[in-house]
Amino acid sequence: MSTRAAFLAHCRDSLASLRQEGRYREFARLERLADRFPVYRWHGAEGPREVTVWSSNDYLGMGTHPAVLAAATRAIAAHGAGAGGTRNISGTSPLHAALEEELAALHGKGAALLFGSGYISNEAGIAAVLEALPGFHVFSDAKNHASMIAGMRGAKGAVRHIWRHNDLDDLEAQLAAAPAEAPKLIAFESVYSMDGDIAPIGAICDLAERYGALTYLDEVHAVGLYGPTGGGISERDGVAQQVDLIEGTLAKGFGVLGGYIAGDADMVDYIRSVAGGLIFTTALPPAVAGAALESVRLLRRDPARRERLAERAAALKSALDAAGLPRIPGPSHIVPVAVGEAELCRQVARRLLQEHGLYATPINYPTVPRGTERLRLCATPFHTDAMIAELVAALRAVLPARVRFAAE
Asked: Which of 393, 402, 408, 392 is nearest to 318 (CA)?
């Protein structure tokens, strides 16, 4: 059998298995309506239909903010559609520089560095750190994002240790067992996106100091959303200065696109100089940089959307609990609803969309462990009480009794 034939056979067999397990991924064609968020237009088999989206990562709706849209338009008019090259060639503009300065100030750090996405910033940034010194040991929370794991796996010579999720005793035991003279990095997230729980950042930083380790904190699901100026959980908890490197995104709380790292100026400059994911990638387009800059500036000085997000999240949780629905408890704005079976989770999401005009993302393996499949919900500042009531009624209609009663 030729390589082509063997590969095609593998592709077809794998896709058949995914379909049989209920894990085959289908993309819903959702057209965002900028003036009506979180209402979208779904292009289904029976034609376009308006639906309410409950799984947007544009947590604050900043991607439709009039000032953000105007900034993007101005940037295109002034600078064109694309950046024109990598940062090294011709892709660094005053917009990129201003955005990096704004992000460094947001986190109280000496410098910040833009990447094409949050995935790239994690993958390239972590690999750059771990390859800086020989014999690096990295201690990774068991629920870290795939992009962080990719960076660790891509670092030549690094030794990876996985500690139980948010378990400080396990982390300390593994730190103590590692060679005392070896360089160490503790990599973790602030808000974990599938469970909605939050890391004890200060306590982890205390362990890092005790064992001479660097800290790398992914604040992707927290920047813009928490803290007096939107600096994330580390700002909210007053521990940002204890974290060596903070990674974030411009694609969620800030509603645009791109990733970044903030930290000590020399550390950031070193990563800028060696990270392949930066050096060999075209810079963010001017419209993206201009829109993100405006979004960060707006959220730094105006906490109203953060306050509204927190209130809406509490209202959604309260309504789900009052209805006896199987919400996975958590302190953040992310609200998972447990389903527990891959195919059932997919069917529930499909029925919500087709029968009730509500879109909620089904989360299956490998994003979460088998048997913990769920719907991932988030109430933005623009989800009304009526929308919450509609969602709760629909969930009661489509979730089987065995799933609903398991929560009681």
From this structure: 392
Residue 169: helix, strand or coil by DSSP? Answer: helix
The pLDDT tens digits of the residues spanning 311-351 come to 999 999 999 999 999 999 999 999 999 999 989 999 999 99
Asked whether residue 405 carries a pLDDT value surpassing 70, the answer given is: no
Structure tokens at 215: 């800290």
Query: Quick one: tokens of 356?
Result: 């009730």
Determine the 3-state secondary structure of 309 from DSSP.
Answer: helix
- Phi then psi dihedrals of residue 276, to 5 deg: -60, -35
Question: Alpha-carbon torsion 43, 46, 50, 56, what sign?
Answer: negative
For the cut 80, the answer to whether the pLDDT of residue 406 exceeds it is no
Can you tell me the distance from the alpha carbon of 56 to that of 50, in angstroms, rounded to the nearest whole number? 15
Q: Report the b/e string of 1-38 with b at 16+ CB within 10 A.
A: eeeeeeeeeeeeeeeeeeeeebbeeeebebeeeeeebb
Q: Integer distance in angstroms from the first to the last C-alpha of the chain?
A: 55
Please report the pLDDT score of residue 85 as a whole number. Answer: 95
b/e code 253-290 from CB counts within 10 Å (16+ = b): bbbbbbbbbbbeeebbeebbeebebbeebebbbbbbbb
* Cα–Cα distance for residue pair 173/168, rounded to 1 Å: 9
Catalytic residue ranges = 252
Q: How high is the pLDDT of residue 25?
A: 86
- pTM recorded for the entire structure: 0.95
